[in-house]
Design a protein that fits this description.
Blueprint: E1 7-11, H1 15-27, E2 32-36, H2 40-51, E3 61-65, E4 75-78, H3 94-108, E5 117-119, H4 124-135, E6 142-144, H5 148-162, H6 167-171, H7 173-176, E7 177-178, E8 181-182, E9 190-191, E10 197-198, H8 203-209, H9 216-237, H10 242-256, E11 261-268, E12 279-287, E13 290-293, H11 301-320
Parallel strand pairs: 1-2, 1-4, 2-3, 4-5, 5-6
Antiparallel strand pairs: 7-10, 8-9, 11-12, 12-13
């Protein structure tokens, strides 16, 4: 009899990894969750802390394990690495976190069953591309959280402007506002303004009908606020982890339950193997095998040009990782 239990292996038990584990348990995304970390004592403590509050909150099995537990997993989520400090960009983490990810891949290799790998570690685009190169599996089996969080932040920023007198509508904005960020999860992110809809209407039409100014200056303010949100949180509390945990949980649910939903995740920009194929966020259909299809992007010339410039910059950064990012 085939085992139908859904299992997630979560590599990295820091703030982000533990927060993702907690979100997965509360959401009942998987029946089994294993938390893996070099510091097994910490991983066990995180597992115990989560498990102690599970009564009445679901029946997921969560335990501390090792890389052999990846062999029968349906999804691997990688968060290992250090987070940003105040004043740092995500790109500043590249060399150090790639060294950590290489150690992860070496340990994972004997137990890699080909299931999807969801990269969370920053800089997520660069590391998604590097892990994709290492694995050499079919396109879509390695992808990153990318701009899923940025897209959520963009929706919130738009809601604050158009629903500024209505906190309840702001809270429900995910049901009424569609907006997407593409490109880099970082300073070069690109709001896909041509695809924004507010209650089914183009934003210019909605705002004109409600006496709201929707011009280039307004869009620039929203874009800058969206881009700076992560850094502002880090400056105030030292880290971000709840937002990305919720986004990782949403992506995981799409994989394990084969939901075939479209999210702006980081994916390699070409299906064939190459030494320097960057990964950037584009709308992608997520299902059991990871990225299952890539719908056409409805963008204007300016958005496409900005995306191509970002891809060129990431390609050079990927080359800078050198021969360390070799296919196994």
């Amino acid at each position: 009899m085939v085992n139908q239990t859904k299992k997630i292996a979560l590599i990295g038990a820091g703030f982000v990894g533990a927060s993702i584990a907690y979100s997965l348990v509360l959401d009942q995304t998987a029946e089994t969750i294993v938390l893996i970390d070099l510091d097994r004592t910490k991983a066990k403590a995180e597992v115990d802390d989560i498990a102690h509050g599970l009564e009445g909150m679901g029946n997921a099995v969560i335990y501390e394990g090792d890389y052999s537990d990846c062999a029968d997993s349906d999804l691997l989520i990688v968060t290992a690495g250090r987070g940003r400090k105040a004043g740092e960009s995500r790109r500043d983490l590249a060399d150090g976190n790639w060294q950590i990810i290489q150690q992860v891949l070496t340990s994972l290799s004997p137990y890699d069953n080909g299931c999807p790998i969801l990269m969370i570690t920053n800089p997520v685009d660069l590391l998604t591309a590097a892990v994709n190169r290492w694995r050499g599996q079919p396109f879509g089996s390695v992808f990153g959280s990318g701009c899923v969080l940025d897209s959520s932040r963009l929706v919130r920023c738009i809601a604050r402007m158009v629903y500024r007198q209505d906190p309840q509508r702001q809270a429900a904005c995910a049901r009424t506002i569609q907006a997407c960020v593409i490109g880099e999860h970082g300073d070069a992110q690109i709001p896909l303004w041509s695809g924004v809809r507010i209650e089914g209407q183009a934003p210019a039409d909605y705002c004109a009908a409600h006496g709201i100014v929707w011009d280039a200056a307004a869009r620039q303010r929203i874009a800058q606020e969206t881009k700076k949100m992560g850094a502002a949180i880090i400056q105030a509390k030292g880290r971000t982890h709840f937002g990305i945990a919720a986004c990782a949980c949403r992506i995981a649910r799409a994989v394990l339950h084969d939901e075939q939903i479209t999210l702006s995740v980081s994916r390699p920009l070409a299906e064939q193997f190459s030494d320097a194929i960057p990964a950037l966020s584009l709308p992608s259909v997520i299902g059991r095998k990871g990225i299952v299809s890539c719908p056409p992007v409805l963008w204007n010339h300016q958005e496409q040009q900005a995306f191509e410039e970002s891809a060129a910059a990431l390609r050079e950064q990927l080359k800078a990782l050198g021969s360390t990012a070799q296919r196994r």
